[in-house]
Design goal:
The chain is of the alpha/beta class. It has helices at residues 8-23, 35-48, 64-77, 92-95, 101-120, 139-146, 152-155, 160-169, 195-210, 235-238, 243-254, 277-282; strands at residues 27-30, 52-58, 80-85, 124-126, 217-221, 225-229, 258-261. It is globular.
């Protein structure tokens, strides 16, 4: 049962979302388990029933906890769920991490899903992109356009706030889930992506969450330097013993040579500032 009532405006957007999906006849939703793709998966299930399928990529850039969450969410929604192995780590253009990494990752994902569409019994691929993604640095949207991926949340006029409100209305457990980009996104542009580095980041963030954090990032820079982002209100705690000493000891055990605490606090996408301007222009979401 829904836990909140929708405003007339949002109810109209919900109806447009369901109608758009119903028109497509069958859809494979690129399903990460994040809030946006979860809402699209729920809507697809409501609009299309068994003609909807959620497809989740698994690779060295996907945290095990995120994959487990995706499986649980798909079961909660009741949508058919398929996990596919993607091979972006075999692509030198992905590994060199020059600011176009996300483009190559999404190209691999959409190419993989496209190949199995006949097996899935659907013809359309859909993403969780919403209106707030337009105009930002979004290489994945360029890859989506090249693979005819549709964006039902944009079609129906959803902002990020709308997505969260509808998720709460539908009683989805991740309605307030923080964004959780892939592990490779933690590596500074120019620092090559390797399974060892993504595994190190994953272990470091698991440790931070064990200290009570819900939102945090470990940014991996040249020289095995970890730049830790925690909410501003938590900076004093992490800069003070015993947490400071425990943090430094654990990160060095994981293989980081230097550990820094970012005084600006947690902020999503901070590494995008290091992407060259010409790359940002080419891979903007518009």
């Amino acid at each position: 049962m829904p836990t909140t009532e929708l405003s007339p405006e949002l109810a109209a957007k919900r109806d447009r979302l369901l109608a758009a999906l119903a028109e497509w006849g069958g859809v494979a939703v690129a399903f990460s388990g994040g809030i946006d793709s979860t809402v699209v998966a729920k809507a697809a299930r409501l609009a299309l029933g068994d003609r909807a399928v959620a497809v989740t990529a698994d690779s060295g850039s996907v945290a095990r906890a995120e994959l487990d969450d995706a499986r649980r969410l798909a079961a909660h929604i009741g949508i058919r769920h398929v996990v596919v192995q993607t091979q972006e780590f075999d692509n030198p253009d992905y590994l060199k991490n020059d600011g176009t990494r996300c483009y190559h990752c999404k190209t691999e994902l959409y190419s993989t899903v496209a190949r199995i569409l006949p097996e899935l019994g659907v013809e359309v691929m859909a993403s969780g992109a919403n209106l707030d993604d337009l105009g930002d640095y979004r290489p994945g949207l360029v890859a989506a356009a090249e693979h005819a991926v549709r964006h039902p949340l944009q079609v129906a006029g959803f902002t990020k706030a709308d997505v969260r409100a509808l998720a709460l209305h539908w009683d989805l457990p991740t309605w307030d889930k923080p964004a959780s980009p892939c592990l490779s996104s933690r590596l500074a542009p120019g620092l090559a992506v390797t399974p060892e580095r993504t595994s190190r980041v994953e272990a470091a963030e698991v440790f931070l969450r064990s200290l009570g954090l819900r939102e945090c990032r470990v940014r991996y820079h040249e020289g095995d330097l970890a730049r830790v982002e925690v909410p501003a209100a938590e900076i004093t705690r992490f800069a003070t013993d015993p947490v400071r000493t425990e943090l430094a000891r654990e990160f060095r055990r994981l293989g980081f040579k230097f550990v820094t605490l970012d005084l600006d606090g947690f902020r999503s996408g901070s590494l995008n500032d290091l992407v060259p301007l010409d790359v940002r222009r080419v891979y903007s979401g518009r």
